[in-house]
Predict the structure.
Amino acid sequence: MSHDTFEPSYIAIEGVIGVGKTSFARLLADRLNAELINEEVFDNPFLIDFYKNRKQYAFSCQLFFLISRFQQQQQLTVRDLFAQRIVSDYMYAKDSIFASVTLSERELALYNRIAPILARDIPRPDLVIYLQANTSVLLDRIQRRNYSFEKPIDHDYIKLLNSAYDYFFLHYSDTPLLVVKTDDIDFVNNPEHFDDLIDQIQKPVPGKKYYVPAGNFATP
């Protein structure tokens, strides 16, 4: 039996707002001595208005994110991904999840004419890690981090996003995928939880793998 360590050069972390993908990406990049790519969330001038009035500002917000993500990902194409490991706190393909949830029918039709053209030369990760959590857990984490612009976020919106993410990754097959249930773990403040996830990442992922950590790992 082979015990080879899996060492993906390009790892993308995904998950719904509040699940902890940016924190996990930062910790993972530090552990792997990898370059960290952060999504430019706070640079979006439409984001605050979007959370106040999602219907009115959805397309402007979505288009800004699409172009921003495209420009970031284009920079990866000129780098030697095999010379340096990269950890990103998002994957480009997830842009369509938000578009499907927030845009009107006419806006989505226009989006679907633009997005595939930009996606043609985007590099694919060697591994995608989808951090998953229940809606109530996500809302609790959003409230605890206390970003002022996120205060209008409500239960129904997060529930809708959560369902859309689950559906997307249920049918996702473009790259190896590790789905991690994070409801009962705290990889930021508990080194044991983080080390356990590192062990899972270093195991080969044939296609799609679901992992439910044991939480506090306490024995009865």
Q: What stands out?
A: The radius of gyration is 17 Å. The beta strands are 10-14, 35-37, 86-88, 127-132, 177-181, 208-211. Residues 54-77 form the longest helix (24 residues). The chain has a mean pLDDT of 89.
